[in-house]
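User: Sequence recovery, please. Input:
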């Protein structure tokens, strides 16, 4: 089943990727997460997978691979902090299938498979992968590695190297920024309450 939802005016379907930056200015917990986010190169340093129904998503966070639920159609990280133990700010949505000239039926099958894979990792209580260089393991996951592994069987390699520094060993790590840079994406309006217009695909 393919689900559709809207967050901050951006449309998401099952398998699409919610891209964020860790931390928020204005309160202590958010400031601490902001400092941690600075360790990851690029504007985007976290990704979650929308699976549905309603606002259900999957992500890998330090406590493991989990599901969480968006409350309404706004990204309010503070309200989800108890579920996620994470505070972040929405950057936008990445669409790994957007540029693929595949049939609608094939895309639906991939979306369903990606969601099923991610939910299976939740059901298996997979832990967080602190070895960022070990992207081949399925015993544990970090956020972008989970997305990478979910799409890889469908000939979609999200290890693009785009948007990150070209330093020794960087090609082994799956960075959230390279997923954002390598996919068609839509950026969330800076102030959604004022600018509710969906920006064009980049």
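Assistant: Recovered sequence (202 residues):
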């Amino acid at each position: 089943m393919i689900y559709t939802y809207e967050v901050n005016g951006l449309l998401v379907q099952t398998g699409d990727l919610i891209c964020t930056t860790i931390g928020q200015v204005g309160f202590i917990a958010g400031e601490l997460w902001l400092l941690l986010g600075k360790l990851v190169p690029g504007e985007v340093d976290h990704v979650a997978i929308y699976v549905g129904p309603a606002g259900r998503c999957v992500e890998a966070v330090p406590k493991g691979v989990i599901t969480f639920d968006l409350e309404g159609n706004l990204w309010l990280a503070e309200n989800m902090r108890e579920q996620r133990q994470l505070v972040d700010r929405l950057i936008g949505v990445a669409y790994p299938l957007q540029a693929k000239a595949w049939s609608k039926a094939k895309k639906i099958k991939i979306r369903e498979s990606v969601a099923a894979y991610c939910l299976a990792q939740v059901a298996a209580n997979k832990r967080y992968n602190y070895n960022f260089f070990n992207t081949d393991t399925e015993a544990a996951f970090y956020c972008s590695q989970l997305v990478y592994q979910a799409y890889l069987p469908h000939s979609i390699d999200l290890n693009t190297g785009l948007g990150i520094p070209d330093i020794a060993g960087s090609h082994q790590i799956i960075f959230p920024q390279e997923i954002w840079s390598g996919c068609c994406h839509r950026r969330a309006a800076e102030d959604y309450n004022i600018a509710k217009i969906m920006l064009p695909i980049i």
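Residues 104-123 form the longest helix (20 residues).
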